[in-house]
Amino acid sequence: MTDPAKAQDGDPFLLNYDAAEVRIAAEFLSNWLPFLSRGLCKSCTQTLSDGIRSLHTAPLASPTVKKSWADMALEDDLAAEENEVGSFINMNDSSVERTSVDELKPKVALSRDQREYIRFSSVQRKKDFICLERVNGKFVNILDGLELHKGVFSAAEQKRIVSYVEQLEEMGRNGQLKERTFSAPQKWMRGKGRVTLQFGCCYNYAVDKNGNPPGILKNETVDPLPHLFKVMIKRLVRWHVLPPSCVPDSCIVNIYEEGDCIPPHIDNHDFVRPFSTVSFLSECEILFGSNLKIVGAGEFAGSYAIPLPVGSVLVINGNGADVAKHCVPAVPAKRISITFRRMDESKRPSGYAPEPDLEGLQPLLVEADRSRKYYASRPRRSSGKPAVGRGDRMDHGRRLIVDNTDARYSGRIRQGHGNRRRFRANSEN
Ligand SMILES: O=C(O)CCC(=O)C(=O)O
Q1: Pocket residue to mutate for ligand 1, from 254, 261, 269, 310, most atoms within 8 A of Cβ
Q2: Which residues does a 6 A CB cutoff place in the pocket of ligand 1?
Q3: In what ranges is there compositional bias, type Basic and acidic residues (predicted)?
Q4: Which homologous superfamily is 125-362+414-423 in?
Q5: From atom 10 of ligand 1, which residue's Cα is the shortest distance away?
Q6: pLDDT for residue 283
Q7: pTM
Q8: What are the boundaries of each domain within the chain?
Q9: Dihedral (Cα; 253, 256, 257, 262), 10-degree rounding
Q10: pLDDT tens digits, residue range 79-101?
Q11: Which residue would you say has higher pLDDT here, 117 or 410?
Q12: Neighbour count for residue 23 (Cβ, 10 Å)
């Protein structure tokens, strides 16, 4: 299979593809490696994995395409006015010797919309979490309302978001943000001391030393949502992760060092449902249960753990938000999460101004919606039956649409042993 050094030297196979395509392939194949290597022996898996890894280090051949698909996807959001089509195979470039494979290759020019649809369709969504617990004498699914959306932010996007969060943290440490935006508590014991950044509003988990009750602090101001976070919010609504009726207007960034945790809680009702949390840097588990127990510093016992892969979004709603508590036990490695929430309008801090660019957001139309609209707008025939037509007749070339909103995936979702398990994230334990 592919020798990493060969890719660096210009593997003849790779010469058929430009830099952007190689990066797309690398990102795509890396994400699918667990599936592709299923049933393979260790050595074949290793060879496959080495081959894919070599693509990440392949040189950027095309001077015209400097950014990966993923980079451009975020950039597309950041600079919506950009009309350039990024991924273009120039068949007429005589500077590259063509092979027979190359001759067979069709001209491909993916529009911005098509690239977005491909990425949108590959988001993996799980919405059927089940954990029955007896609450007030009745068995209920305490996880009803939870949704895990995997692959919402690509590796390149995660990198940009993390580096932006690091800049914000630095600004917070240097006193360049509003006082209540940044908080870095003293690490007085293991599991305590998460760094947080709050935008849009700040709130208390519990009564504070000034006697303020838990919830949004009416008279404290923090910095507004940074631009990049608004870009993320737009993605969440557009890609059917959050409903347009509940566009977040605030967020908390949690920066966990190894051993930091967030104790069991139910999010304050000053925030409406659903809310969502996006994960970066390392995977950890979030624990749900109607009765989570503290068993040590950063150590909790509960019913159900959901692994949160990087780039994923967990949407918390229904019983998952209001019957079950949740917590993140001491994390095994540095992790960043951004929890987006919408404030109850009556609880907004004084002087809060809504973000105009977060108004009127709409989800991406999927094929089914297009067909519905098409049929709805067509005059009926005398038979009373709707006119027969294929959705793609009216899609003006946008046929790459697949609605897999309910696609299942086999995640590493684990139910606790005997419906109750203890989570440790410390080698000392
Ligand atoms: O870090 C997470 O994913 C969860 C954060 C959370 O529960 C919170 O900020 O209230």
Answers
A1: 254
A2: 252, 254, 262, 267, 277, 286, 326, 328, 337, 339
A3: 390-401
A4: Alpha-ketoglutarate-dependent dioxygenase AlkB-like (2.60.120.590)
A5: 267
A6: 98
A7: 0.68
A8: 4-121, 125-362+414-423
A9: 150
A10: 443 333 232 223 333 333 444 54
A11: 117
A12: 25
